[in-house]
Design goal:
It is built from six helices and five strands. The chain is mainly alpha-helical and 167 residues long. The strands form two sheets. The chain has a three-stranded antiparallel beta sheet with strand order 3-5-4. It has a two-stranded antiparallel sheet with strand order 1-2. Helix 5 crosses helix 6. 7% of the residues are buried.
Length: 167
């Protein structure tokens, strides 16, 4: 029987075996990676808005920040961030409850006293995507139940909605 003794690794050896993250360049100019902004560079506040529009959600932004700041993802409290995000979503949902049935009633009330209403007038552009989706679903449901009709007089012309409920 052969007995082998193993010594424990020192902290330096553990750190040496640990994969290292390198800083990601935020730009490549003429093949050269740029990792620092020039000290005299002025970025107008409006330009920063463009960067935020490129992210599809909070996780995209988080991944970008991890890469940009060269963070170790094990040091990030993902559970806390996730809980904050879920709380935010719940707040947005309870802030304005969206119901397809309620939206159907709202649409019918809007078109009941007019012969035709422009299709785009049924949407509130101030609403977020979810509100627009609920309105569209409500329109489809009203069409399915034969309560409204969608009319377009000519190709690429204005789309109108009219009620099929007799007045």
């Amino acid at each position: 029987m052969k007995l082998t003794l193993r010594r424990s690794l020192t902290t330096q050896e553990k750190d040496h075996n640990k994969p290292q993250q390198s800083e990601m360049p935020f730009a490549i100019v003429d093949g050269e990676q740029i990792t620092e902004l020039p000290k005299d560079l002025y970025i107008p506040p409006v330009a920063l808005q463009v960067f935020l529009d490129a992210f599809e959600g909070p996780l995209d932004l988080l991944l970008y920040l991890i890469r940009k700041q060269n963070l170790d993802i094990l040091d990030i409290p993902i559970a806390d961030i996730t809980q904050q995000y879920v709380d935010y979503i719940n707040l947005m949902i309870t802030k304005e409850p969206l119901s397809v049935k309620e939206r159907m009633i709202k649409i019918l009330e809007k078109i009941e006293n007019e012969d035709f209403v422009r299709f785009e007038d049924l949407f509130d552009l101030k609403e977020q995507k979810i509100g627009l989706v609920v309105t569209f679903l409500a329109i489809l449901e009203l069409m399915k139940e034969l309560l409204i009709e969608i009319v377009q007089a000519e190709e690429f012309g204005t789309i109108h909605v009219k009620t099929l409920i007799e007045k």
